[in-house]
Amino acid sequence: MSSPAPEASYTFLGPEGTFTEAALLQVPGADVARRVPAPTVNAALDLVRNGSVDAAMVPIENSVEGGVSATLDAISQGEPLRIIREVLVPITFVLVAKPEIRLNDVQTISTHGHAWAQCQLWITQNIPGAEYMPGSSTAAAAVGLLEKDCPYDAAICSPFVAERLGLPVLGSHIGDVADAVTRFILVSRPDVLPEPTGADKTTLVIPLPEDHPGALMEILDQFAARGVNLSRIESRPTGQFLGDYFFSIDAEGHIADARVADALKGLHRISPHLRFLGSYARADRREHSVARHTSDEAFRAARIWVESLQQND
Ligand SMILES: O=C(O)C(=O)Cc1ccccc1
């Protein structure tokens, strides 16, 4: 199965109006599908794990701030999941406030941690000293402003949410980087493997084995030796004990490609508890070149040659 069935149902980091919902709406058919907002990434993934919905859209990586730790950790542990699609969304932030508040009055601001981190230059220049109150998403922070006794003055969200809620905009294009992009992933249960497209990505979670000097170099060598390029590598603590880490890696190619499959075999020998989180089409459709000696044909010829040598007759 290469994509969710036409009648598929979805969850996303909500409420309505998050950048994550905008990412979900790029999935064909999602605009007319059942869409269930979830309050956190973990809650969204649990709805997939317990079968309440078919797939969840969650943020994974930002061009300015890097990996979204909550997502990297949630997909790396617990019941296995599969990434079946990635979506890129250009991000533009606005500052909205309660109706009676002017820019000079803003003392406290709520938003998602990644949005806050990406607006630091504007905040420092325009409201130095403003205090941050963490929010579960940009849209949740904006909606909160409409509630009685909201404990903060302003929120950072998308222009779309500001307009829909009718909130006064005190600053537009407040992100530090004009063309920031966030990458989102569509996650399903592990019975789905999208077909290779020729421009694919494979995501892996590789625990760093204990008492294995040079393990990281050996892990990286599995990719290098087979001409598999990496597009993201991050280390995250497992939470078990100090110094216990796993690597979250995106590699170019699909598990159906011989060089990727062969790298996975090598990785399994070094770190047997590694997790395959899926092979799926790259959002930018960029194809990568494959050297002749790492092509499917080269691997096939090498296997046939060895098998012929192993025969006794
Ligand atoms: O809070 C949102 O709207 C999200 O979807 C998470 C997020 C936050 C900041 C940048 C991109 C995505």
UniProtKB/TrEMBL annotation:
<dbReference type="Pfam" id="PF00800">
    <property type="entry name" value="PDT"/>
</dbReference>
<comment type="pathway">
    <text>Amino-acid biosynthesis; L-phenylalanine biosynthesis; phenylpyruvate from prephenate: step 1/1.</text>
</comment>
<feature type="domain" description="ACT">
    <location>
        <begin position="204"/>
        <end position="281"/>
    </location>
</feature>
<dbReference type="Pfam" id="PF01842">
    <property type="entry name" value="ACT"/>
</dbReference>
<keyword id="KW-0456">Lyase</keyword>
<keyword id="KW-0584">Phenylalanine biosynthesis</keyword>
<keyword id="KW-0057">Aromatic amino acid biosynthesis</keyword>
<dbReference type="InterPro" id="IPR018528">
    <property type="entry name" value="Preph_deHydtase_CS"/>
</dbReference>
<dbReference type="InterPro" id="IPR008242">
    <property type="entry name" value="Chor_mutase/pphenate_deHydtase"/>
</dbReference>
<dbReference type="InterPro" id="IPR001086">
    <property type="entry name" value="Preph_deHydtase"/>
</dbReference>
<feature type="domain" description="Prephenate dehydratase">
    <location>
        <begin position="9"/>
        <end position="189"/>
    </location>
</feature>
<dbReference type="InterPro" id="IPR045865">
    <property type="entry name" value="ACT-like_dom_sf"/>
</dbReference>
<protein>
    <recommendedName>
        <fullName>Prephenate dehydratase</fullName>
        <ecNumber>4.2.1.51</ecNumber>
    </recommendedName>
</protein>
<dbReference type="GO" id="GO:0004664">
    <property type="term" value="F:prephenate dehydratase activity"/>
</dbReference>
<keyword id="KW-0028">Amino-acid biosynthesis</keyword>
<dbReference type="InterPro" id="IPR002912">
    <property type="entry name" value="ACT_dom"/>
</dbReference>
